[in-house]
Amino acid sequence: MQGLLISNNDSIDVKIFVGKGKNNEIYAHEEKESLMEYEILEDSVEEVKFVFRRPAYKDEVNLVSGSVIISDAAGLRVDPAAIRYKRMRSLLVGWSLVDQNDKKIPVNSENIDKLHPRVAGTVLNVLDELLV
């Protein structure tokens, strides 16, 4: 049966739309039409693509490892925010982000950490849906 082993070349594309609101805030959504709920300046909407390496079993183990908190008060607890953060940093291999000079912004830990929280959250929500 094919598909039981994950290749290093297997990838998942996540496309979202990002726009700037009248209040100069950044908004993100997986559907362009849904951005308009936020009074987005129409000429500011851009499609942004993120490429993730498809996680294998070892990746899933590594994501959970270190994200489990053991305490006397709470007992055993999994930190979902830590798992999502580790997923972004360990599996993201490409994106269409460019700087003001149209130069491609490299995918690295420093730049991943600089992503706008709404953008990162939207990307991870879409990725979660695709991984189910």
Q: What is the typical, i.e. mean, pLDDT?
A: 92
- The value of Rg in angstroms is 17 Å
**Unreliable parts:** none
Would you list the SSEs in sequence order as H and E? Answer: EEHEHEEHEHH
Helix content: 25-40%
Number of strands: 6
Distance, first to last CA = 20 Å
Work out the strand percent. Answer: 25-35%
**Given the structure, what is the number of helices?**
5
Please give the largest β-sheet.
4 strands, antiparallel
Structural class: alpha+beta
Shape descriptor: globular
Strand order of the largest sheet: 2-1-3-6
Describe this structure in words.
The protein has 132 residues and is α+β, with helices and mostly antiparallel strands. It has a domain of 85 residues. The chain has 5 helices and 6 strands, in the order ββαβαββαβαα. The strands form 2 sheets. The chain has a 4-stranded antiparallel β-sheet with strand order 2-1-3-6. Strand 4 and strand 5 form a beta hairpin. It is globular. The relative contact order is 0.18. The mean pLDDT is 92.
Short description, anyone?
With 132 residues, the chain is of the alpha+beta class. It is 33% helix and 26% strand.
